[in-house]
Amino acid sequence: MKFVISIVLITLASLLQEGNSLHAAKPKRDIGNVKKEQQATKKEIAETSKKLTANTRETNKMLSRLNTLTAEAQSKREEVAKLQMSVDSVDKKIRILDDSIRRLDNRVESMRKNYAKSLRGMQGNFQQMSTLSFVFSSKSFAKAWQRVRYMQEMGKWRKRRSREIKSAVDSLTQRRVALDDLKSARRKSVALLSVSQKQLEDQKIETDKLVSRLQQEGSSLRALLKEKEKKAKALDNELDRLIAQEQKKAEEARKAAEKKRREEEERKKKEATDRSTQQTTDNNLALNSSTTGTTNSSNGKIASNKTTTTNINVADQNRILSGNFESNKGKLLFPVAGKYRIVRGFGRQKHPELAYVETDNSGIDIEAIGGGAARAVFAGTVSEIFRQPGYNTIVMVRHGNYLTIYANLSTINVKKGEELKSGQQIGTIYADPEENGASILHFELRKERNKLNPTEWVK
């Protein structure tokens, strides 16, 4: 029993000693240590946030560059196709011209041989006598005259054949010059085609690299696209709100005008009724006066104060402007002047390079090459100017029932309510330093709140 108690006491003592040693090894937490831990945590959070922001910014740059490259590649493919068509067309013309030159060359050679043969035949007949001898060797005057006429016709024939041969030779020379020009044009077209194809290949390599990097940034890209979609939706909602507000005001104005018109009609009817009643009274008084045979100058006439009124008509300006705007579908000015490229098209579409990315665009995004300004596609009235996150300053112009929206402006040259002329400068497109100074205009076209594809309207 004593032995067991001894073992228990020894074990307890050992445990107490171990606990004391562990307690002694653990540092004490005071207010200074807590503050240091908080500062370290804040610094770590700040650094993480900074990295995420930088990563998002870099992802945005890559996505913008990819959109630009995609637009450039499409434009370059169209250019290559046109150059290839040009080369094919020149090749066809060269083949046709080659054939015509060969035929004309054979014809000239045949004409020369026949002419030479004819001349040799003539020389064979008259090589022993001169022209005079040939004429005067005739046995009669009639024969001599026939020989003179023959020699004259022969001279005309020789001149005619010479002219024909010369004309054929000149035509042959011109066709050979034209052939040389075509071959020179072909060489230039082929050289341009080669350069364009090389540029297209380089763009493809860069595009593939960007696609690969963006695929690695999956979560960051998804977050960025979600944020862009959120901003686009916010712009849509704001535009819908503003347009609905305008429609409400227009409806209120229409009702007020209609009310005023009805009141004016009622007033005119009342005046007409009053005049009719007054006229009846006057007639009765005149009848009574003639019956009694007396005239009362003061009572024979009752003064009538006539009020001059103007009937106000409200012109249907919306219908007129809408007709003018609509009749120019496909011919409206492009919203930017100079060189440009469309980097994002209209509507919901899959990204041409990122298979898993699908975007929805209420308008088109236009990159003004080298920067530039937005301009009014048609005459209209500035109905709203406002700012929206992700789109900087936005100007909305009304053209009757139609509206055009110019977004991502850094400065504006117009004010609300201003009447704009077609082509008038609206403002400067924002040059984004995060995207190497690219100036991208977001342009929308609507019939009230109904979104339309701008590329079907502008040119």
Strand content: 15-25%
- The strand count comes to 13
Distance between the first and last residues' Cα: 108 Å
Oligomeric form: single chain
The overall pLDDT, averaged over residues, is: 75
- Computed structural class: alpha+beta
Which overall shape is indicated by the principal axes computed on the Cα atoms? flat
Task: Work out the helicity level.
Answer: 55-70%
- pLDDT < 50 stretches: 1-5, 22-26, 293-322
Strand count, sense and barrel status of the largest sheet are:
11 strands, antiparallel
- SSE sequence, one letter per element: HHHHHHEEEEEEEEEEEEE
Number of helices, where a helix is a run of at least 4 consecutive DSSP H or I residues: 6
Taking all Cα atoms into account, the compactness measure Rg is 48 Å
Describe the structure.
It is a single chain. 63% of the residues lie in helices and 15% in strands. A hairpin with a 7-residue loop joins β2 and β3. It has helices at 2-25, 31-126, 131-136, 141-216, 218-292, 317-327; strands spanning 340-344, 347-350, 358-361, 364-368, 373-375, 380-388, 392-399, 402-412, 419-420, 425-429, 431-432, 438-447, 450-452. The protein contains six helices and 13 strands. Strands 1, 4, 5, 6, 7, 8, 9, 10, 11, 12 and 13 form an eleven-stranded antiparallel sheet that branches. It has a two-stranded antiparallel ribbon with strand order 2-3. Residues 1-5, 22-26 and 293-322 have low confidence and may be disordered. It has 459 residues and is of the alpha+beta class. The protein is flat.
